[in-house]
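User: Here's a chain of 213 residues. Predict its fold as tokens.
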Amino acid sequence: MNTTIQIEELSHNTFFWKYYFCWSRGFDEKEEVNIDEALEVVEINETEAYEWESIFFNYDDIEENPRHVAGRINDNLNFAVEFAEYEINFFLNDIYIGNLGGHFEAWFFTLDELLAFEKYPNLFLLFLPMTGIKENEKAVLKPIMVKHLNAIPKFDAHSNYIADCLLNGLIMQSPFEEIEEIGLTNNQNHSVRNVTAYPRYQEDVIELNKILK
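Assistant: Prediction complete.
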């Protein structure tokens, strides 16, 4: 089976986006439920969804040959999102920037960096769970999220609610800050850009900061 997923395959794909966002750290603050339970408002045929998922992600061979979506953003930047057995891994220019899973590492992109991908809806939604924002940035990001969620069948009826749940998982306790010789960093736990806690990532962060400027 071809392990490469064309990014166009994700457009208007209800099964994919429900599966994908269930991996995020979103939650319904009022009802105190995690994103997978919150996303039950998106009603799909669960049997059909599981059959689609098993084929799409090639579960029979996922350990040896995980599927991935990849592409070139511009002359200096490419991306890949790999759907491994127990986690989703993210790369820019073949440099690891985080994962969704039991030992997640996220909060890599700033709001401005995410918004630079806004003209590529599928990429914008893929990078959304890798983004870290401050509480007061929710008002900027939410209407853009709602616009893109509205394009997904069966998400559109609940896009405001889903956006709120996803936003809850993006809030950082520590803001991004500029450090001389390194560029943008943060002190958020579970962030690849936290070079204080994870000095092994420092050289990669320096390289990506230059590219993302």
